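FORM 12-B: Structure-to-Sequence Request
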């Protein structure tokens, strides 16, 4: 690790982290940690990045943040297919008593804002849903006329809690139409290795909605999926009828949570209700793996958001912060 920025009066030091094993250990243990800040996923994005740590002068790690870069600027958050990559606190911070934790997290966040603004000409982060105290952003340059203030953008995702999960009981809580689709559907669910077919259906799904998906975006989706499969934190699931695949979805996971990252459907097989059964089957599979949550990865557009929430997902807020 090499020092990036420090202060003679601050109780904190900002360092660049080059040890990805140590970085992933911090992310895995942090309450704000998630797959999108793990080193393997970051590398799959194919963009420059730097992982920063906040430590005490004695070297104790207190927090960190990965920054995707565009020259001397932070890339505008959220990066494509990456809902969160904000500040993560170490367990030594998170496990303190409530009052002390609030104070320490506030001070660390305030320090990180100032230290990172010494490195970059802007500030842009999409924070974890488990990052709660926005005051350091709201109070930046507070009361100072003519100086920039943070813009806070509110976003939402949907979580299904998987502790003591039973599919039969869960089905009683989902929207009636989803329960009916699940019961009527005759599709078979299995893992798939046919990434090329998935990408074809993914492109067709957007085209059916009148949306164009460019070659660079499709290449990024491919690279994210290939990296996740090769590193064993992602898999492709397919729903088929008579050997014809009607729906496919790509899921990734970390030690705590499964994430519904990509979905695609055959436009000519929409009447077989494949996507509902595909999602419910994989929610159940995530529970059987011992994961705590299933994250629908954003419910911020009207149609897709309503579809995701119809699976009895809890509406969970998170924030983007931009300066």
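FORM 12-B RESPONSE
SEQUENCE OUT:
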């Amino acid at each position: 690790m090499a020092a990036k920025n420090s202060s003679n009066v601050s109780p904190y030091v900002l360092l660049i982290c080059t040890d990805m094993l140590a970085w992933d250990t911090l992310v895995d243990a942090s309450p704000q940690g998630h797959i999108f800040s793990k080193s393997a996923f970051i590398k799959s994005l194919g963009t420059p990045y730097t992982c920063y740590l906040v430590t005490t002068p004695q070297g104790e790690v207190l927090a960190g943040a990965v920054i995707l870069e565009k020259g001397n600027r932070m890339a505008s958050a959220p990066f494509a297919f990456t809902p969160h990559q904000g500040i993560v606190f170490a367990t030594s911070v998170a496990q303190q008593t409530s009052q002390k934790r609030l104070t320490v997290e506030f001070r660390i966040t305030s320090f990180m804002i100032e230290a990172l603004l010494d490195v970059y000409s802007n500030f842009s982060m999409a924070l974890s849903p488990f990052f709660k105290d926005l005051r350091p952003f709201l109070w930046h340059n507070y009361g100072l006329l003519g100086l920039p203030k943070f813009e806070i953008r509110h976003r939402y995702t949907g979580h299904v809690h998987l502790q003591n999960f039973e599919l039969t009981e869960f089905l009683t809580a989902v929207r009636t139409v989803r329960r009916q689709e699940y019961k009527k559907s005759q599709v078979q669910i299995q893992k798939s290795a046919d990434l090329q077919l998935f990408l074809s259906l993914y492109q067709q799904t957007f085209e059916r909605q009148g949306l164009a998906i460019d070659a660079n975006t499709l290449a990024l989706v491919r690279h994210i999926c290939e990296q996740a499969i090769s590193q064993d934190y992602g898999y492709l699931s397919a729903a088929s009828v008579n050997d014809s695949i009607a729906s496919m979805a790509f899921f990734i996971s970390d030690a705590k949570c499964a994430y519904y990252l990509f979905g695609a459907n055959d436009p000519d097989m929409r009447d077989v209700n494949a996507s509902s059964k595909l999602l419910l089957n994989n929610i159940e599979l995530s529970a059987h793996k011992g994961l705590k949550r299933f994250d629908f990865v954003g419910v911020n557009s009207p149609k897709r958001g309503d579809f995701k929430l119809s699976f009895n997902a809890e509406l969970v807020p998170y924030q983007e912060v931009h300066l």
